[in-house]
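Aim 2 progress update. The chain analyzed this quarter is reproduced below.
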Amino acid sequence: MKTAFSVTVRNAAQRLGFTRKYIYDLLYSGGLRGRKVGRRWRIPAEAVEARLKTRKANDGTTRS
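Predicted structure tokens:
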């Protein structure tokens, strides 16, 4: 998997409006795509954008 651009956990958290801990939880559970480079996670920018789109699409739904 070759990605032209990747972001850090901090950048992803800021972009998505989540805490860094929640981003780590998503990464470890497979809810957000990413890979470890040394001790740090790198997240493909398109994975962050896809998660953002899903979040925006779900914001308008009603829950029972």
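The first helix runs from residue 9 to 16. Residues 10 and 20 are 6 Å apart (CA to CA). These observations will guide the mutagenesis experiments scheduled for the next reporting period.
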